[in-house]
Amino acid sequence: MRLLIVDDGHYVVEYMKHLLDWNTFGIDQIETMTNSIEARDMLTQNHIDILITDIRMPEVSGIDLLQHIHQHNLPTKVIILSGYSEFEYAQQGIRLGALDYLLKPVDKDDVEKAMSKAINNITKTRPAQSVAWENFDGLEYLLSVLGQNETLRKAYDVYTEFLGERRFCCFKLEGFTQEYEDVIKHAVGDKLDRLVWVAGTRLFGLVPEEAAAELTIKLEQLVVSPPFMLTDRNVTRQMFYRFFLSEDVHSDDFIGIFNRSPSCGDWESAGNIIRKYDQIHLQKQKVIFLMETILYVYLTDKDRDPSETVEWIFNQLRYPDELSSTLMDRVNRIRNNKQMSIQTIVDKVQTYIEDHLSHGLSLDELGKVAHLHPVYFSKLFKQETGENVSNYISRKRLEKASQLLQDSELRVADIAQMVGYRKNQYFIQLFKAEYGVTPYQYRRNMIHQ
């Protein structure tokens, strides 16, 4: 699915673009625009599933984009962004068909709820005959059926409805050859061949019942499962685990596991995941837990390799204790990469602050350095460092002042100016509150040490 984010503020579109793991909502393409006229043209010329737009923009407003979608009968679902003072506009947007509106500065949880609402609306209103097979990722679909990510499942509901008109069988075939793969893919057709995978020297997959009957005649070594309906999720899961992984699972086995999974909240660290894994004793429940971990990695690792995922699911998952260390390392890497990008922003601003202590250092100034809205940046800084931006600036100013008092003979009034305090008396007051003595006493104490 395609998402378009439109706001005349560059920092807002950048913030929104990196706010969520959009893949978890089935979004595989994200477009961002600061020019609303070009955005209107894009809506007409390209299929956009979801639009997130600011309501007040020069030339073409969010309301204008909504009217454009309405007039041209476009299927795009709209979420609007507005400030408190623009509530009447937001109401007008809802009347024109916007699914939701979010108040700036937007909150991550609110965006997730609005996106879930939009995805749900799309799957309800999109007819089965308009299934977009070009967007069908067979491996992601399999994980949506086996896992517990409700948003992903809803994104694929339209495919399950379409496929649910037929019964399917699991199959496996030892001794991979290109000829075998071609025979199987020809039997299932050019859409369902995405449910056929190669792992090592074996072929695995899901095929319609009638294709399975045809293939068992052509390929003697082919092993197939009893038929089942993809619309019955529990039966599909039970069949999959029994046939491919020799694990006899029941619906009760999933309940406790999913409460520990990433789909039910963010995992704080790879160490935390290992602790959760170590609490599981039954082999089949370990396998279910690691399947959830594979789903998490598949949705969040931008450098994922689908063939590696297939290898994990069909070959390595039978030995969960061996696979667990590989997956924990991968989760750790994903989280470190995500953390690094945020840490890079914070480090950059901290360096800027230390190099410009004589400046006013307003949130607006720091927001420009971070390329983020000042309010968003302030929240991010506190979240990452545990300290308010203003506290950090004050602490660094006083640290610099204490250093200058020790290492130079500059007047106290000059030092106050150099670390950003225009009023000498205010500087002395803050310094005493921090160090327990006035700047003069501090210097004298240092000299006599």
TrEMBL record:
Gene3D superfamilies in the cross-refs: 3.40.50.2300, Homeodomain-like
Domain Response regulatory: 2-119
Keyword list, A-Z: Cytoplasm, DNA-binding, Phosphoprotein, Transcription, Transcription regulation, Two-component regulatory system
Classification via InterPro entries: CheY-like_superfamily, Homeodomain-like_sf, HptR, HTH_AraC, HTH_AraC-typ_CS, Sig_transdc_resp-reg_receiver, Tscrpt_reg_AraC-type_HTH
HTH araC/xylS-type domain boundaries: 347-445
Superkingdom of this protein's organism: Bacteria
SUPFAM superfamilies: CheY-like, Homeodomain-like
Annotated positions of the 4-aspartylphosphate modification: D54
Primary location recorded for the protein, binned into one broad class: cytoplasm
Residues annotated as signal peptide: none
Entry-linked Pfam families: HTH_18, Response_reg
Name the record gives this protein: Two-component system response regulator YesN
The organism of origin for this protein: Paenibacillus xylanexedens
